[in-house]
């Protein structure tokens, strides 16, 4: 029988049930397969302080499940680090984790910016950053412009990102990733 300390069991239980934000320091340059062997790890976020942690990680280091609903988030330090990471490695790891970076969504209504929000690229809009920590807010609502008229028959009024409708549970993904993305109101 494999023995695990009470602390390790509690850590794993927390990761499975509630999710954790785990910071991976720059000094960690190698992360082997199944280092975090948690199924149903979708709420877990692994924050990389440096690109070397990603470059030294096995494709299944953060999850050993390829089920999309079980994938944790691997958060790059910034857009530039994400963009410059090895594409072959990103493609291999994308089957096991949502590769992400902090992105600013700029909500524009009638040509004016009405709100900006920090979000996680390649994740649901429901992730919010409070006091420097990312978490899933299942009750999150998109900003609402004031004075919006009722849409005419056959039309909807709503937010669009990269030509696609953006709802409170949409995943943030675009054809041309950037550190700031514009979300526009469509009538």
How would you concisely characterize the structure shown here?
By secondary structure, the chain is of the alpha/beta class. Helix content is 16%, strand content 28%.
Structural account:
This protein is of the alpha/beta class. 16% of the residues lie in helices and 28% in strands. The protein contains 4 helices and 11 strands. The protein has helices at 6-17, 51-55, 79-84, 87-93, and strands spanning 21-24, 45-48, 73-75, 98-100, 102-109, 112-120, 127-130, 133-136, 158-161, 164-166, 180-186. The strands form 3 sheets. Strands 6-5-11-9-10 form a 5-stranded mixed β-sheet, with no helix packed on it. A hairpin with a 2-residue loop joins strand 7 (127-130) and strand 8.
Question: What key attributes describe this structure?
Answer:
alpha/beta; 4 helices; five-stranded mixed beta sheet; single chain; 187 residues; elongated
Q: Could you outline the blueprint of secondary structure elements for this entry?
A:
Layout: H1 6-17, E1 21-24, E2 45-48, H2 51-55, E3 73-75, H3 79-84, H4 87-93, E4 98-100, E5 102-109, E6 112-120, E7 127-130, E8 133-136, E9 158-161, E10 164-166, E11 180-186
Parallel strand pairs: 1-2, 2-3, 3-4, 5-11
Antiparallel strand pairs: 5-6, 7-8, 9-10, 9-11
Q: Describe the sheet with the most strands.
A: 5 strands, mixed
Order of helices and strands: HEEHEHHEEEEEEEE
Task: Note the overall shape.
Answer: elongated
Strand order of the largest sheet: 6-5-11-9-10
């Amino acid at each position: 029988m494999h023995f695990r300390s009470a602390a390790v069991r509690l850590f794993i239980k927390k990761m499975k049930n509630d999710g954790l934000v785990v910071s991976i320091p720059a000094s960690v340059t190698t992360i082997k397969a199944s280092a975090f062997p948690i199924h149903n790890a979708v709420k877990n976020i692994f924050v990389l302080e440096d690109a070397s942690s990603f470059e030294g990680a096995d494709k299944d280091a953060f999850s050993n499940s390829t089920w999309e609903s079980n994938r944790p988030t691997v958060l790059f330090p910034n857009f530039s680090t994400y963009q410059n990471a090895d594409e072959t490695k990103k493609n291999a790891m994308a089957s096991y984790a949502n590769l992400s970076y902090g992105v600013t969504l700029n909500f524009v209504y009638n040509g004016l910016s009405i709100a900006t929000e920090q979000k996680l690229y390649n994740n649901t809009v429901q992730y919010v950053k409070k006091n420097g920590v990312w978490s899933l807010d299942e009750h999150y609502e998109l900003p609402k412009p004031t004075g919006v008229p009722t849409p005419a028959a056959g039309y909807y009024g709503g937010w669009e990102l990269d030509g696609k409708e953006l709802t409170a549970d949409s995943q943030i993904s675009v054809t041309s990733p950037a550190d700031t993305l514009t979300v526009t109101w469509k009538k």
